Amino acid sequence: MQKRYWRCFVCNDIHSGLKPPEICPTCKVKDAYVEISAKEARIFDGAVAEKEFAVEDFRLAIEKMTEGNEFMVNPNREKVDLLLQGVMSNERSYGLKYCPCRLITMDFEEDSKIVCPCNFTVHATYKGVPKGECWCGLFVKR
C-alpha cells in the first residue's frame, strides 16, 4: 500500500502514512484531516512524493473528510464544480489549493490560513443561522 498525505484543515498539520490520525496531535480536533497531493504536502512540510490530485480526487477527498463531521459538501453540484475549478486554478497559479473566494496576500504564513479546506468552522459565515456555510459555500452544515 502506498503512503498518502493528509492536512489538518484547522492547524495545517501534515501527516503521512496509510491513514490520518483520528485526532490531530497538534490542535486536538477530531476528524479534521483531508487527503492532499504530494505537491501540497511538500510545500507545507517538505515531504517527498509524486502523486498530484485532479479535481475528482479532491472532490472525493473533501467528501470523505466530511464523513462524521457536522458539515458536508454543498449538495449543489454545479456550485461545487465551479468552486473546485477555482481551487484548482489557484493551485496551478500559486502552488496551493487556496480558497477561490478569498484574496491571496503572497505572505505564506497568512495565506496558509485560506488553503481549502480552511478552518471555516470558526468564522461567522459558518456559525451564522440558518445558513451555516464556509466563506465560498463549498461546505454547509448538515
Can you walk through the features of this model?
By secondary structure, this protein is of the alpha+beta class. The protein has one domain: Ferredoxin thioredoxin reductase catalytic beta subunit (Ferredoxin Thioredoxin Reductase, Alpha-Beta Complex). It is 32% helix and 13% strand. The chain is built from 5 helices and 5 strands, in the order βββααβαααβ. The strands form 2 sheets. A 3-stranded antiparallel β-sheet has the order 2-1-3. The longest helix has 18 residues, at 77-94. The radius of gyration is 14 Å and the shape is globular.
Features:
142 residues; alpha+beta; Ferredoxin Thioredoxin Reductase; two-stranded antiparallel sheet; 13% strand; globular
Summarize the structure.
The chain has 142 residues and is an alpha+beta fold.
Order of helices and strands: EEEHHEHHHE
Q: Compute the average pLDDT.
A: 88
Report how far apart the termini are: 33 Å
Estimate the strand proportion: 5-15%
Rg, please? 14 Å
Shape: globular
* Assigned CATH superfamily: Ferredoxin thioredoxin reductase catalytic beta subunit
The first-level CATH class name: Alpha Beta
Looking at the structure, the CATH topology is Ferredoxin Thioredoxin Reductase
Number of strands: 5
Number of self-contained structural domains? 1
